[in-house]
Structures are given as structure tokens and as C-alpha cells.
Amino acid sequence: MSMKIIGTGSALPTKKLENEELTKLVDTSDEWIRERTGIGARHISTGETVADLAADACRKALENAGREASEVELLLVATCSPETEIPCTACQVQKMLGAGNAVAFDLNAACSGFLFALNTVYAYLTAGIYRNALIAGTEVLSKIIDWTDRGTCILFGDGAGAVMVEQCVEGGMMGFVQHSDGSKGNVLACGSRKLENPWFLEKDFVPYVRMDGREVFSFAVRQVPASIEEALGKSGITVDDVDLFVLHQANRRIIESIAQRLKADISKFPINLDRVGNMSSAAIPVLLDELNSQGKLIPGMTLVLSGFGAGLTYGACVIKW
Ligand code: ACO
Q1: Which residues contact 123 (CB under 8 A, 6 or more apart)?
Q2: Nearest to 289 by CA among 177, 138, 144, 152
Q3: Between β-strands 210-211 and 132-139, what pairing exists: parallel, antiparallel or unpaired?
Q4: Is 186 a catalytic residue?
Q5: Which of 155, 118, 116 is nearest to 279 (CA)?
Q6: What is the mean pLDDT of residues 41-59?
Q7: Is 1 within 8 Å of 7 (Cβ atoms)?
Q8: Is the dihedral of CA 289, 290, 291, 292 positive or negative?
Q9: Residue 195 to residues 68, 200, 204, 296: CA-CA distances in angstroms?
Q10: Which of 115, 274, 294, 307 has minimal CB crowding within 10 Å?
């Protein structure tokens, strides 16, 4: 038994923030941002929550799949920027959708969140525990960004993507790998809420994203191609058999370097980060939905999905569309 994606959806906040507008906030330029990252614009929440965006994306994924919310058995939301600590975002989305028959919970693996959620759901579905699932990656990163730090505030965007999946007999997921390296957690980190009980001992606390950009860059260009090769090996195919590599959208130069290391044609690496920036766990499902709605995902195509990010976490999976 395997698992296939039967519908996709996405949602972006209405406000579009162009590079030019950022030059009024920090000492940067459109040219610098485009050259170093490939990013030209991103969408920023003016009030939309991670749950609002995820629910919108999920509704579209259900519609695309021709399924009702009441049919959903498992609702898994990947996010590293939840609006509330409790209840989890998935339970809020469940309520918004009226998906009363689903079990709902969150998963946080930062930019690998959607990929890890997909693999987790695969385990549930192939074990026969549930027959279908709705998976969303959703972020409002703009609330955990330091808008005075030009090294990070130029990179990120808000948005959500979702997929509806169900058990299948043939095709679908062919293989996956996932890895974590907690020893490198400090290269990309963000505090949650400061300990302020009556007994706390003062410690440094940063409630915003802090990043060692060069470390993240070198981690991504080394580990991502290796994990893709590993996932391809497990699936019994090679780089040449892949039609599209749907990668986490962090930086154009990272994607180009990964393509080079894999000796794969860059035209097989769709990119939307120029328009939406880095949306962490929402990046892969939003890109998948764009490709799907443009009719670029043809049955029988072989796709590689690969996520990488804070944790550090990274992984890849191979899917027959
Ligand atoms: N505008 C203008 N100048 C800037 C900006 C900016 N927005 N940000 C940094 N600079 C300056 C720095 O201050 C530095 O100046 P100095 O030489 O006077 O000290 C200079 O530009 C070079 O800075 P570097 O950090 O060395 O620049 P680099 O070429 O490494 O690019 C970047 C920085 C884009 C962050 C790069 O390291 C990168 O892409 N890293 C990957 C990180 C990433 O993609 N993270 C996303 C989150 S993680 C994830 O999704 C996996």
C-alpha cells in the first residue's frame, strides 16, 4: 500500500511587500536582495493568522480533491509560527473547516515541517490507521522576524499550502528519508516565550529569528543533495529519472548549487521564491499547488520534494504523481 496526493491548495495574505518597500525599513537595496537571494517580493499578514491561511488552503485542497471536510480522518498542520501555544493550529483549522471526524495535531520541524508531516502521514496511512489526511504547512513568520535586522527580514514571507492525500495501491510515495542534527540548533533559532515565573534566573532571550546565514547556506548545499540521492536510492531510481525537484524555497543560489551538485538541469527546479520569499513549512505545498493549478503536474511524473531548515532538519521524498 502507498499514499498519493489527490488535491492541492494554497493561500497568501493580501499584502504584497516588494523589496523596494523594505529599503524604507532597513539599509538594503532591491539589487542586493535579488542578487544574493533571488527574492523580489513576499506576502505579509496584516491580520491573517496561521489558522486562517491554513483553513483557506485546506478548503481549496479539499475542493481540488473533490472531498468533503467531514470525510477527513487525519488533519496535520506543520508550522513554526503558531498564533497560540494552545490549542494547536490544527484544532483551530478543524473547527474552521468543520472537519469534525478528523484527529488534528501540529508538527514543528521548521522549513522541513511539511515534508516531515507528509512522511508522518505516510506512516499512518500505510499502517492502515487512517485512510486519508489533510496536511497543511502554514506560517506567519512576519511576527517572529526582527524588522530591524536586514540579514533576516528580507528573506521571509507568510502563507499556507495544503494537500489532501489518501491510500493507494500503485504509485504515490516511492521512498523518503529524514534527518535531524540538533547539535547545530544554534545556527537558526528563535525564542518562544520568556520564562518569568517567580523563581526564574535571568538568561539571554531573543524572541526573534537569529540566523548564521553562511552556516545555513553551507549546510543546505551539502546535506540536501546527499539526502535527495539517498531518497532516490531507496526508491530504486536515479537523478535522470526525476521530472521535477520541488525544493524548499530559501534562496535561489542554494537551489542552483543543489542542481549543480546533483548534475541535474536547473529547468527541472521550479522556483517561486522571487514572488513569495521563504515561507518555511508553507514553501513546498504552495509551490506544489502553483504547479498543479498551472497543469504542470502530469500523472506518471516523478517528483522529488526536499525540505531543509532549523533544527537542523532535512529530508527528501520521491513521489509518482
Ligand atoms: N542588504 C544589504 N547588505 C546586507 C544585507 C541586506 N539585506 N544583509 C547583509 N548585508 C551585508 C552584511 O552586513 C555584510 O556586510 P559587511 O561585508 O560590511 O560585513 C555583507 O552584506 C555580506 O553579508 P553576508 O552575510 O556574508 O552575505 P551573504 O552573501 O552570505 O548573504 C544571505 C547573506 C543571503 C543570508 C546568505 O548567507 C544566505 O542566503 N544564507 C542562507 C540562509 C537562508 O536562506 N536562510 C533562510 C532560512 S533557513 C531555511 O529556510 C533553510
Answers
A1: none
A2: 138
A3: unpaired
A4: no
A5: 155
A6: 98
A7: no
A8: positive
A9: 42, 6, 11, 48
A10: 294
Is the C-beta atom of 214 inside 6 A of ligand 1? yes
Q: Which residues contact 312 (CB under 8 A, 6 or more apart)?
A: 180, 181, 182, 184, 185, 187, 188, 219, 223
CB of 31 sitting under 6 A from ligand 1:
no
Amino acid at 38: G
Of the listed 88, 278, 292, 317, which one is catalytic? Answer: 278
- CA-based Rg of the chain, rounded to a whole angstrom? 19
Residue 242 cell numbers, joined: 526525476
Express as a percent the part of the chain with pLDDT over 90. Answer: 94
User: What is residue 194's predicted lDDT score, i.e. its pLDDT?
Assistant: 86
pLDDT tens, position by position, 286-300: 999 999 999 999 999
Is 111 annotated in the active site?
Answer: yes
Q: How far is 151 from 93, CA to CA, in rounded Å? A: 33
What are 150-168's pLDDT values in tens digits? 999 999 999 999 999 999 9
The verdict on the CB of residue 193 being under 6 Å from ligand 1 is no
Q: Identify the band that residue 201 occupies on the pLDDT scale cut at 50, 70 and 90.
A: confident
Q: What is the pTM of this model?
A: 0.96
**Is any atom of ligand 1 closer than 6 Å to the C-beta of 217?**
yes
